[in-house]
Amino acid sequence: MTRNTIEAEDQVSRLFGALADPTRRAILHRLTSGEATIRALADPFDMSQQAVSLHVKVLEDAGLVSRGRIAQTRPCRLEPQQLQLAEDWIAQQRHLWAARHERLETHLADLEHAKPRRGR
After folding, report:
1. How far does Cα 95 stand from its chain's mean position?
2. When you count CB atoms within 10 A of the terminal residue's CB, does the N or C end of the chain come out lower?
3. Phi-psi category of 87—alpha, beta or left, where left has phi over 0 and alpha has psi -120 to 50?
């Protein structure tokens, strides 16, 4: 594996790891409405702002969220283009498994045709 391939695999792992948690998915959903502070993101959850901040950090590390600076606040914003990486990975896997399935079907059909006929 090349260094770029390993880095891409690591990024995909961080991305899917970030998306695996329902709280983080809810945060992303909230950010589809626009930027929000940690305080605003924490409001609907039964957890501290610090806990929500840790979730946001995971989303940042995955490239799904960025944080700006406006005066004293650091609003979070969604980075939806990062989801393209997940879409590309899923499409690649779909293609790989479809090709494998097609080869299996061909092999099974070949086996069926090669079976000796009994009773003749």
Report:
1. 17
2. C
3. alpha
Sequence letter at residue 65: V
Alpha carbon distances (Å) from 96 to 17, 89, 91, 101: 22, 11, 9, 9
Whether 18 and 24 have beta carbons less than 8 Å apart is answered as yes
For the chain, first and last CA: distance in Å?
54
Q: How many residues appear in the chain? A: 120
pLDDT in tens, the chain (120 residues): 677 666 777 889 999 999 999 999 999 999 999 999 999 999 999 999 999 999 999 999 999 999 988 777 789 999 999 888 889 989 988 988 988 888 998 888 888 888 776 655
This prediction's pTM: 0.73
CB atoms closer than 10 angstroms to residue 54: 14
